[in-house]
Every structure is written in C-alpha cells, then in structure tokens.
Amino acid sequence: MNRIIKHCLTAACISLLAGCGMIDFAYNNAPSFVVSEFEDAFDLSASQSRQLDTRLDQFFNWHRREELGRYRQMLERAALSAEDGITAAEFLQLNNDVRVAWQRSLEKAIDSFGDLVVTLDQKQIEHYQRYYRKAAEEYHDYLKKSAQQREIYRVQLSIDRLEKLFGSFAEDQEEKIMARLQQLPDFYEPWINFREARQQALVKALSSATEAGITRQQLKTILLDPTTDHARAFEPARRSYWQAYAAALEDISAWLTKGQRQRAVNKLQKYARIAGRLNDAGYVEAEKSVPSLTMTGGQGI
Predict the structure, then answer these.
(1) Which of these, 62, 72, 109, 111, lies nearest to 286 by C-alpha position?
(2) What is the pTM of this model?
(3) pLDDT tens digits for range 260-295
C-alpha cells in the first residue's frame, strides 16, 4: 500500500516534470489516476471506488494548499545551492526536507482514506499480494545480478538522473563521475529487504483487519514508525548511503561547467515557479469549497 499511496505524491508532483501546457491537466486529474491505481491493486468495488474518489479530492485540496508552498521553498533553496555547486551539507538538508515532506503527506493520506482498508475482504487482499509480487519483480531481478552487474546498473542509473538535471557530460567528466559513483555502497539490497519486510507486516495487518479492524495508527506504525524492526534494520544503511552520496555529489559539482550548473538552476527555478503557481491556485479553490474542507477538521474522515 505504501507504493500505491506514493502514487498520490507522484501524481501530485507530475506537473513539476511536465510541460507548462500539461500542468493544470495533470494536477487536476491526479485523483482519478490514483483511484485507477488502487482499483488495479485491490480490485475495488464500485462503492469503495466512490469513497476513495471523494477522499482523494480532499487529500489533493490539502496537498495543493499546504504542501506546494513548501515544495516551492525547497526548490528555490536547491537552485541557490546548485548555482555555486551543492555541498554535502546542503544536499543532506534538502534530502531530509524531501523525506519529511513525503512522510507528512503519507500521514495525511492515511488520515484521509486509511480506514478504507477495513472494507477490504480476503479476496481483495490476495489480489493486492499478487499485484505487489508483480510490481516487485524488477527488484528481485536486481538481487539475482552479480556484484559487477549491480554496480553497472546503479552507476548508469545515477548518471542518467544527473544528466537530466545538468545536461550531457563530456567524456572526461563522465569517466570521473562514474569512478566516483562506483565508490558508493550498494543501497538497493538493504532497501529491497526493508521494502519486503514492511510489505509482510502490512499484509499481516490487512488480513487481520477483515476480522478485528485496523486503525490509522497501526498503518502509520507499519509505514512510518522508525522504531519498527524493519525500519531499525534499514536505518544504518539508509544513513550511510546518503552521507556517501552527498560527499560524491559535492565532488561531482566541482567538476561541472558553469553552463551545466546554470542549466540545473534554471530547471529548479522553473519547477519552483510552477509549484508556487499551483499553490496560489489552491487558495482560490479553498475559498470556493470552505464547507467541505472545514467538515474534515484537518484530521481526515
């Protein structure tokens, strides 16, 4: 379910990755996209889909009103950092801010429609398990790779992501960057193990919910609590990786040209403007629908 709820945020933020002409369409249609994902995952009934649709509208109203302003600020800070070359400390702060924003949105999503899991029957839970296993195939394929194949996969993925932000690298730049990225620890295996342990805990809770019910707090514990066994086992690897990545990114930033850094600045500033515009539009929508928003009391239904 964590993967499914994450589609809320993916859809909510898709406007930051789309052309300007697609912004309003993508954001305004995000609830329908997420309902479709939940339907695929759980084989929802018509009644369940209608309930989810209503609550997702409320979630996205909140997200537009409360979160996009924070995204704009984060993007503006990222642009300032990129201009002179981001330091390890700056990246770690931004990384933490993004993580906190994700956790805040997931907590709100659970408050908004987490109680719908009580309405799932055993057949729907089994359907979700099949859906999850299919979605997890690519991760299990990674575990089957040799150490060398894993390294090639990780480095190339990182190179592709960096080039989307900074533009194409010259041959000598790419060689230095690849060598630096090869020094990073394997983050994927501990992350996959964490993901699998969390999934097992979630399915166990969902199965018991068909008989005894499940609270929002139980869902938050499984998906967000850092003191669970699966979270504590994963935390050292998570912290170690991002500290190593931050140090590598600081080195890489020093090897970039002024034009490459400016390209990143321009993209981040553009995304910040988009988030700000959507946030401003959210205030207009909120004024039109105060009764429905007030009814939830900001605590979800």
Answers:
(1) 62
(2) 0.83
(3) 999 999 999 988 888 888 887 654 443 343 333 222
